[in-house]
Structure formats: C-alpha cells, structure tokens
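PROTOCOL LOG
Step 1. Enter all chains and additional molecules of the complex.
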Amino acid sequence: MVLGNSLSIVNASKYYKKFKAVDDVNLTVNQGEFLTILGPSGSGKTSLLKLIAGFEQLSNGSIILNDEDISKQKPYERQIGMLFQNYALFPHMTVFDNIAYPLRLRKTPKDEIKQKVESILKLVHLEQYGYRYPEQLSGGQQQRVALARAIVFNPPLLLLDEPLGALDKQLRKQMQLEIKHIQKQVGITTVSVTHDQEEALTMSDKICIMNHGRIEQIDTPENIYKHPKNRFVAEFIGEINLIKGSVVNVSEENVKVKFHDSLIADIERKKDSVKEMKDQSILIALRPENIQVAREQSHFQNTIRAQIIEIIYVGEAVNIKTVTETGEEITAKIPAHISDLPGRGKDILLGWNPKDASLIHDGTPLHYY
Amino acid sequence: MIEVKSESWIPVKQVSFSQRLARFTGLQWLLLFVPFGYIFILMFFSMADFFKLSFFDEDGFTLEYISHIFSTDVYLKVLWLTLKISFLVTVFSLIFAYPLAYMLVSTKSNLWKKIIFSAVLIPFWISLLVRTFSWTILLRKNGVINTILLDLGIIDHPLELIYNTTGVVIAMTHILLPYMVLSLYSVMAGIDQRLLQAAQGMGARPWKAFIQVFFPLSIPGLLSGSLLVFVMGIGYFITPALLGGTNTTMISMLIESNINTTLNWHMASALALVLFVTTLILLFIPLLLTGKNPVLKELE
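Step 2. Run joint prediction.
Step 3. Record the structure below.
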C-alpha cells in the first residue's frame, strides 16, 4: 500500500455570517500519523473536518495535502477517504459493491477490483460477507465495511467523523483498537473528529483540542493529559483538581507556589509550560490519581489537610472527595484494594509529588493574554 | 427508640370505570373490529353481490358477459385506450413530479419548500369538478391557450386540445400529479443525503452520485407513485367524461352508461370486474419485482 501523505492546514478560517466556526487554525499532520480533533460540541471540529473533505469552503487560508493546495478543489477531486458517523453505506449495494464503488469510479479493471476488494475484506475480517447487504450486518461489521471502502482506493488521507459514536461501549473499545491497528498497518495519514476523550487518548498519535473555533493545544495524548496548557484543556480532559495559588519563587527546576495563604508547594518546572513569574497568580493542576491519602504523616513533599466529605466507589478505584480548611474541594482517586480507608468526616492528609502537578494560568485560556 | 406507626386505616382504592373496563382482556380488538367490519363487510359484500351479476342472470350461470367484452371490438378498444391513457398520465406525472420531489428534499430554503408544497397541495384540496371545468376554459377551441398561441402567431388553426385523448391526459396528469409528488417525496425524504456526500467523497461527480446512489434508492417511491397514479387513472370517471368527448371513452364511462343509460347491469358488472382484476394484478406487480433487492423489499 502507498503511504499516506502529510496534511497542513494554514491560517484556516470559516465564517458563517458573523459566526466564526473555525478561527485561524494552523496544524500539521505528518505522514502516517493519527490526529484526533477533540472538542465540545460547537467547538468547530466538525466544521474543520468538512473543510478538509471539501463539503464546506474555506473563508480564509489554505489546506495543503501532499504539497498541493486542495482548498479550492471539489470534494470529488480531493481523493480523500472518509468514514462517516452513520457509515453512509449504500443500502442498495452489497458489501462487495460498496467497497468496489470508489474503484469502479476510477475505472479500475475488473479483476483488479476483485483482488483489491477481497484483500481489504480480509484486512477487516469480513471475507465471508461480500455478498451481504449492509442491513444484514451488525453495527461493528458495517463500520468495518465503511472503513474498508474509505481506504480501498489508497487515498492520501483518511477522515473519520465521530467514527464510533453509534456503537455500544463494549464494541467501541474493541473497534478503537481495530481501527488503530488497521490504520498503522496501512500507514495512512488520518484525521479523526470526536467528542469522546477516551477514544482520542486511545487511538491518537496526536490530539488537537479545539474550543470556540480555535486550537487550544496540540500534543501527544500523554502530554495533553499530563501537562495541559491551559484551564480549558485541563478541565476538558479527564478529571482534575485546580488549586489557586501564586508564584513565590522560580528556580531552575522548581517553582514554589504559595496556596491557601500560608502553604507552599514545590512544582517541577517543565519546558514548554507557562512562563512563571513571581507573584503571578496561577493554578496548580493535579490529577486525582496523583494524590495520595494519609492519616497522620505523608512522605510526600507537598501536603494539604482536608476533611473527607464523600467516598465514591467506581470499581477499580475509589474517589475520595475532600474539602480543605479554606473550602476548596479536592478529589483523590486511590486504588480500590486499599482496605483501611478512613470514613466520611475524618481528617486526612493529601500529598503529591512535585513532578505530578503542573501549573497553568488562572482564568481565561492563554491566547487571550 | 424507634416508634413504629401502625396504619389503622387503609384507604379503599377507588376503581374507576375505565380501570374496570381495562380488566376485560381482548377489549382492544373492538377498536380493530369496528373499522375492519366497516371496510370489509360493507364493501366486500356489496361488491360480491354486484360482481355476481357478471356470472348469473335470469337463466343462471353464464360467461356470456365476460366473453362479450373480450370479443367485441368496441370494448377492447375502450380497454386499450383506458390502459394507454393511464400509462401516459403515469409517465407524464412521473416526469413532472420527480424534479419537484427532488427539489423538495434537496432545497435548504424553507421558503422554496413551502412554495412547492403549496403548489402541489392547493390543487389537491380544490374540488375535482372545479379543476376539470377550469381545464375546459383553458383548453377549448377559443380557450386561453389557443387564443394566446393564435395571437402570438405560433399557430394558424386552433389546436385540438379538448374532447380527445390529449385533453384527458393533460387534465388527469394535473389532477394526479400530487399523488406522485407525495409518493416520491416520502421515499426521497428518507434517503440519507450523506450517502451522496459519501459518494462524492469517493470521487463521484454530483450527477454520477445522483444516478448511482440517489436514483436507485428512490425507485420504491417511483414504483409506488406510478402504481397509485396508474390504478387511480384506469378507474377515472369525471375528467374523461367531461373532457373526453365521444371518441375518448374510458372503461368507467362505459360502466356508467351501462348502469344509467342502457340499464344492462350484467354488462356493467362484467366491465367492473375486468377493471377490478386489472387493478389487483397491477397491485401484485411490486411483489414480483422485489426479489432480493433490500430497497425494494420495503414495498411488500
């Protein structure tokens, strides 16, 4: 199979009357990479996908695929494979004919079509289903047919529009991995749009978080999760505790942050994170699973005293909701097998490592500064 | 100490009439039985009684009337003309209705949708008689159309637009068009527009996507609309009676004249039976056509 090509979106904007659906977006997807655009509804992620596919026209900027500006091309000229949310399989064609459709449009010889369709059916584990109609397949099977149809003609780019939205949870998890494996196997450059963060974290090489038509952060799933750039990203991905504080001292490796009037926390300084300045007000971002709970003494560098207000069992873990003396709520997540948990109303000590927290600006997202 | 309150007075639950009624099982069948009886018992028995006249007269059982139809030129001609007119009306209303219905589902402008819908539906609500008579005003020798064409010098002699097959086809197409539009629309509205996007995304030009994806999926509407128009067409009476003249006699007019003029009820019954059987055969055509195609299966 031919490798996919790189996609660049340069200064792209889309206005509907005065509403900015996509607002000056720049992003690059490298060859063979899987990028997920993640955002709440109305964030412009679907508009961006439609712009790439050609179903909408850019107001400004350009879209460059394989060194060619495709932003003025019609959808049928762009040669992009797309997987629709509802699969968009043709109900009047068999699985074979559905997959052969893009090949027939390209006037591929008959025996080559047969061979290509059969080999792609093998790839998606549906060898026996060529002569069935879409309605005779389960949701997951339809999904795989749609995927096969989207990549069978070796497009330079694959677009996925909420690919797993219509499947139930069990199947979704399975398909996440399956699509990812096929994508890697074929090596096709892929852009996916979803509002499901778990899906984004599982499948992507890179995640692009969008809000109000703008990109908030583009990074690897790990970095997005561990080092959110701003408050929006921090709160959008996973659960997080945000503790207000102000910078007291900035050294080579650490930032000392004063919080709750008198307490001081050491936070590891990361490259690429916000520019910390003395006296600047800031948020300490702490994932619940990075907080340890102790009764009396904690061996962690940073600690805070709090009272348990609720204990919630979530299966593999227990969420402990606490409130500090200053009234701030902090949630810790600890493994469920820890047995001697203090009960509700008890005072405990919350502790965390300097490297497990990150600092983000208080209040509005960065680009408003 | 926990105090256990004892309930000394348990309220007797009032059972309403409707609740008591609900305890009779099978009562809901009444809802079905009444309209069912209305449709079948009343219609079926009166029809059977009427059709009996085709086979029984004073001398007992006979096939004379039925065979008379198929051995008389005039009757066969009328039968043929009836089928021809219905076919033409079906074809023309399909040609006019398809773009209209497509426009209805594809336009994003609500205003256009309303305009088309009113254009289709308003004639639907106007009395059939009024519409047929207005066609005589338009089509007759010194009518609106001929006057305009003559004044413009396009034609030298007035066109024969009325009291012949042309007039009947024109007026019947107009009258039956809404049925076709609505049948097509109901099926087209269910076609996912994203299928067309998907086809275009794979490299199909818009017209190709239309022919390869949209059109095949609209066939059920096309078939059901055509069937509806055709079946209504072969039994049509008022329009051909008023616009057809003496040369354009359709089967329903023949039935009417046998009942009202010549008072030959046996003949009328035989003709009605032929009409009825033709209709039944036509209604079974989609069943034969369905085959394995999952789109057509919905018609069953």
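Step 4. Note key features.
Chain A has two domains: 7-229, 232-368.
The interface with chain B takes residues 53-55, 74-76, 78-82, 84, 86, 88, 90-92, 101-102, 105-106, 133, 135-136, 149-150, 153 of chain A (CB under 8 Å).
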